[in-house]
Every structure is written in C-alpha cells, then in structure tokens.
Amino acid sequence: MNETFAADFIRPALGLTLAVRCGRLLEKTIFVALLLLIVLAAVAYGGSDPWWKSVFTCLIFGVGAFAAIELALSKRPSVINLRLLLPILVLIAFALVQTIPSPRSNGASLGISYRLWNAISADPYETKLFALHLTGLALFAGLLFRYAATESRLSLLIYVIIGTAVASALFGLLRATMQHNASFWLPFQTDQGYGQFVNRNHFAYLMEMGFGLLLGLIASGRVQRDKVLIYLGALVPIWMALVLSNSRGGILAMLVQLMATLLLFPLVVPAQQSDEGKTGRWIRSRSMRLVMVFSLVIMVAGGVLWVGGDRLVERIEATRGEIIESEQLRQGVTRIQIWQATLRMIEANPIAGVGMGGYWVAIPTFHEASGGMTPQQAHNDYLEILASGGIVGLAIVVWLAVMVLQQARLNLRARERFIRTTCFAALVAIVGVAVHSLVDFGLHRMANAMVFTALIVIVTSNVSTEKSRQSKDA
Question: What's the domain count of the chain?
Fold first, then answer.
C-alpha cells in the first residue's frame, strides 16, 4: 500500500522534472536556431532573392512552432514586448486591408460576367507577401525578446551580429584581392555586388550595423582595456570593406555614426563615471566634442579617399549626375528622377498609398522616361513607405519609431551599465541604417532586415543582468 502511494506520488514529480528539462533544452535550442538564422541569411547572398526571403520566413515560423511547445512545457512567464510589437501587427493588418477587393469590382460585357480586382494595392499578391514576411520578422522579434532576455544571451546575440559582419567583410576583402574569375565561388554574383551580396549598397548596410555596434561598445566603455585592441582589430576590416565597396550611402552613414557617437556618448557615460579632473570635464565639454567631431570627420574622410582610391573618387563625382537632372538621361533611373516620380505617385494616392509591395506595379504610370528601365524601388525607404502606405502607413511606422525611441530613452538612463551600453551601441548602428535608407533600400534584403530587427530588440530589451538576478534571489 505504501509502495503504491509512493509510486503514485513520485511519477508526477518525475514527469514534471522531465518536462521542465525538455523545456530548458528546447529553450536553448531555439535561441541557437535564431542565431543560426542570422548567419545563414547573410551567407545566402543576404537573402536577396524573393524565394530566399520566403525560405527564411518559413524557417522563422518553424522555430515559432517549437517555441509554442516550449511555452507549454515551461513555467517561465513570457517575455514579449507587446507594446512594441503592436504597431507592427497593425501595419500587417493594414497591408491585408489593402488587398481587399472593392464591392464594385464585378462587371459584365456581351452577356459575360467577370470579376475585376479593384483593391487599394496595385499588386495584391506582393502585398500579401509583404504581410507574410513582416509577420515573420515580428515573430522573430518576439522570439528574441523571450529567448535573449538575459545579459549573457543578449551579449551572444551582439557578438553573432559583429562576427557575421566581420566574416562578410573579410570575404569581401578576399574577393577584392584574390578574385580571378567572374563568380569566385558565387555562381549568381554580379559585378555590382561586394562580398556575398549581389548589391554593394546592401552589403554596406550589414557593415554599418556591425561598425555601429563595435563603435558604440568601444565609446561607451563597455569593452575592457585589455580587449580594446581585439575590438579595434574587428573594426578595421569592416571599415576597409565598407570603403572598398564604394557605397556612397554607406560611407555617408559611417561618417554620421562617428558624429553621433561623439556627440551622444555623455548620455551613456554619466559624469560621475568619467574622470573627475579638469581633463575629464574638458573632454566632455560641448565645444571640445565639436572640435573632436570635426577633426575625426576630416581624418576619416581623408582615410576613406586614400583607401578607396580612384574608383571611389569616380563614384563620388557621379553623385552630381544623380542629383542634377539631365535632359540627356531619358532612362529615368537617376535617383532624382525616381524620387520625382515617387512624389507624383504620393500626390495621386495620399491616404492609403498603392499597396505595400505594390510600388513596382504603380510607378510606370508616373515615371516619365523612355521605358527602357523601370525602377523597382524608390531608392528611399521613407518615400517608398509614404508611396506604398500613404499617410496611414507612414503614421503606423512613425508610431513604431516613437515606441522604440521612448524605450531607448529609458534604457539609456537605466542603472545597469550593461543595458545602457548595449542600447547605445545598437542605437549607433540604427543611426547608420536610418541615414543610408535615405538613398537606398537595403532593408528589403532578409539578412539586413533580420539584423535590424535584432538591433531594435537590443535597444528596447530590459534584460535581467547578473546583479539584478542576485538581488532578486537574496
């Protein structure tokens, strides 16, 4: 009798222990899978092709299915920033609304009835794909919020992003110096690419994000003195690859990142943690920071021209031709011509736009050119958001940006130094992307979109540090 009672008591306990152990093992596996997705997306040409984007979106959903199992097994409360994810979910819903056909889309001719697709979106199929991919990125962010919610895991996430950027930079430099054939192990590569990316400008996005993280960590004092040289050693190949890629938008973004770091680092390094002497106060003064910014920009610009050489000078000189409209260029593919066409499209569809992902279908109506080449993107993400989503879509994106900045402001004032420094480093990286997006569309590539999503998670995460866990346990 006693043995039966003991067996009935022990079996549920053993079952519970087994479930908890399986949940913990699954939790670690899911986190590793999320990190691998970032690396694999960068390897696969940055996820440039539409089918690559779909593959990685499906993989994210697959990881999400295992996360649902882990949630059922684990008793740990969910750590998901729903306040931040809400604008993204609203944008997904808005995109789906853009695909709803009009009630008056039916017609008849010669006694034959037919149905027209008369939706807001110029390309409902692409708009649905946009909603699907954005749902995957939202799920990716939610999974990172839950499974990268500790100091050690968030640090590992940062190191994976930096490591991916460094590896891509080294591969790009290797290609630039040792390539003797057209592909160099990349059968689908073109002359416009750099590293493993098909487009040099999209490669520059990944470099900016890695560069910003390293620069922010070094400037905020997060890096120990005996490891500074290691971080600087990682910074050098990223800087060289960014310059040699000849991406003008990338170089401009890098210069802005340098200025932002010098001007904003007092936010993350309080006065009481810096030198208390006259030298410390002098360095922290506004006038001295401006002098340092000006001097650093001059030195970096000189180094950029020196390393980039004649090819970079030619690319910079070509900028004038893309900004000043020429009657001889009837292809209409300069940025100023594309932006003018986009503005006309915005004026014609101001409220709800032409559909998220429907830009390429709607732009020919407003593109005054020979028709030999039709732009597929606006080469300005802000204009494209306004053209695709109208005022409604732009308002949702601004809502998301405000949510991110509000949480970043709180994290920059946090007591825990880890939260302040990682938030600052991710902000520097985001600044580079924000500047480069004025002239390019690198976030349309899955690898860059996933890394950018991870940066937003880093900026807004309220991770549990070692000290806070010890205080809770006490």
Answer: 1
